[in-house]
## 1
Amino acid sequence: MPRGRYSLHDPHDHTPLAEEHFHCAPGPSGWRYVSQLTAPSGDHLGSVDLALDALGRPLRVELHTASWQVRGAALDGVTWVRTDPTGAHATEGNARAHAFTGSSPAFLVATTRLLRLTPSAPATRVRLVAFTDPVLAPRTVDQSWTLVGREAHATDNGPLTVDEYQVTALDTGERHTVHIAGDVVLAAPGIELEDLASPPSVFD
């Protein structure tokens, strides 16, 4: 069960935004990721709880910030409910999308579990509902993912396979690179892996 800490920063000016303390693990039904976010000041910012089924579809996503919370799942595309902390103001949403995304590294791993790309596969288009910080406002985004390389690196715990993905935002054409080993993001725009207490999980 990997445990560790990511630092999140603005990908443009590198302003520190948060630290995300996480643990995750595959299980009989798929994969689960749980994390707590803290501000650079040490204040609690929110939490992430994501569970995937064996095919990489979101069984459950639960996001919390100081002012909003979202619960969602794969249902008729994807369906979610966004509420304030008191639950007095709730809105339900639905979109013909494949899954969810957001600022947490968990969503990058989740997208790779959904797409199951191979190095020889062509670019694959995916539609996602993104929840933007800090108000968790939903918006639909279209991306193209390509697995451009796979390398094995020697470590004290045996070889570590690192996948390099190229991700393209189809509305702007902006491209970026994501490096993932198992269920841990090693590097991505705005994301740095600062600490890892145990090796990444190996998926079948």
## 2
Amino acid sequence: MHTGQLLGSGRTADVYALDGSWVLRRYRDRSDTTEELAVMSYVGAFGFPVPRIGPPAEGARPTDLVLQRLTGPTLAEALPAGRLGAAEAGALLARLLRELHAIPPRVSTNPEDCVLHLDLHPENVMLTAGGAVVIDWSSAAEGPPGLDRAMSALTLARIALDPALPAGADVRPLLAALLAELADDGGASAADLALARTRQRQNPHLTEAERGRLDEAVELVLDSSP
């Protein structure tokens, strides 16, 4: 099928423009997108902010997703540009996690489980004119909400410890703000962080350097918790 301009590339997928309304997300690391589509449709039906799902394009591959084309910066781009501060960004991430975890599980029969994004961090939140929209549901699963909170916090801590982080891009204030916002929900416990560390260590898309910072990242989360 014909694809337009390459809009961006991540660790696992490339995003191409199709037209002014739709984009094609093409994965390089998986066989199909059936589960991701199911999760997005499910949480979207509860009013959670996800991109609209478009009709399959002619000649599409099983690894393709046709999604609403969103306009606006990611939260990761908006922060250093001064469009919002760490406290506001932390509150936004916490609110999105809280609203997602209020959705009952789609598959699990455990009433304590909920839908988990498992990769909710500033690069996966788009700030559109209509509000924040959460993208990249490829890691979504179901389970206890504490694991999702721990995954978000651990990702921020890992980024904060990256020696290649540009000057002026300190993530620690955002991490502290997020943990403060999540404190009443249970925060990121040591047990949940241990599970999150194991999950991230097994992620084949992390570099060895990133895996090597995970233990220190866990400590940073615990030290930053109120």
